[in-house]
Amino acid sequence: MPPIVSIVMPCHNAAAHLPDSVGSVLAQSVGDWELIAVDDGSADDTLAWLQAHPDARIRHLTQTNQGVSAARNAGLAAARGRYVAFLDADDTWAPTFVERMLAGLQARPDAVLAYCGWQNMGLPGDRGAPFVPPDYENVAKAETLFAGCRWPIHAALVRRDAVLAAHGFDPTLQNAEDYALWLRVATRATIVRVPEVLAFYHFHDGAQASSNKARAALHHLAAQQRHLTQHPEFRAALGRDRARRLMLGELLKRGYACYWKRELAPARQIFRAVMRHGYGTLADWKYMVPAWLPETWHRKLIGMQRAKTRPGE
Questions:
Q1: Does domain 5-207 match CATH 3.40.50.10210?
Q2: Mean pLDDT of the chain, nearest integer
């Protein structure tokens, strides 16, 4: 008999993190699950660790390195559960994640997805404070979800048939692939909030998708553009000006965030993308235009400036 929940875990050089991530799955208060771990061409002991694990509920697949979206799609194709959750190999869940998320979805037969609160671990100050998102199931849901990703990949439980109907993850996206999927799934049917912190994102020194800020910003824009192309009725309802503010305004905001941290390389990439779309005020362009200069010149120019205002902050 198939399990009720399938958990898909893409793994790339994740051996150091598997004891914690897999351990959080083994600690679940509900045991009716399968964990499909997809080794995405790891060069460390990831596959050996998975092969040696004695729990029969843990299944492992292996493939050449194709990226996180392809790995998740491979796991999804092998999944047997009615519901599916996605847990990256360096993140964890509270012991009641499956129990509470299942309860939230099963209480609403019309719902396709449940989302919960989360906490960022390994960040200083209040950047690591636990966060419970608001209830997004309202008249503004489509626009709110379009404006930005409202929960991380591992803070959701979704009906497998809904993910399959949405064709899974877009393998051309290395960032925002989860955001693009949630747009296709959550804007079409009811979603449910579970107002508890049940998911934990762990920041560390290894390679993480969130560390490539320019790529993250540009792939987020690409996902938005594709959504508008695929849903002309939503694009018409949103209107050109509002769409540009939600897309290019967000892109500009991310560019400024990098700029004021003096992360100039990603800021320059983002600023150039914004300018190609002809977006921003004259004050914004004052900060963006030097992104066309050689980076060494740009840095010297910043050192000479004594700007008293910081638009975009």
A1: no
A2: 94
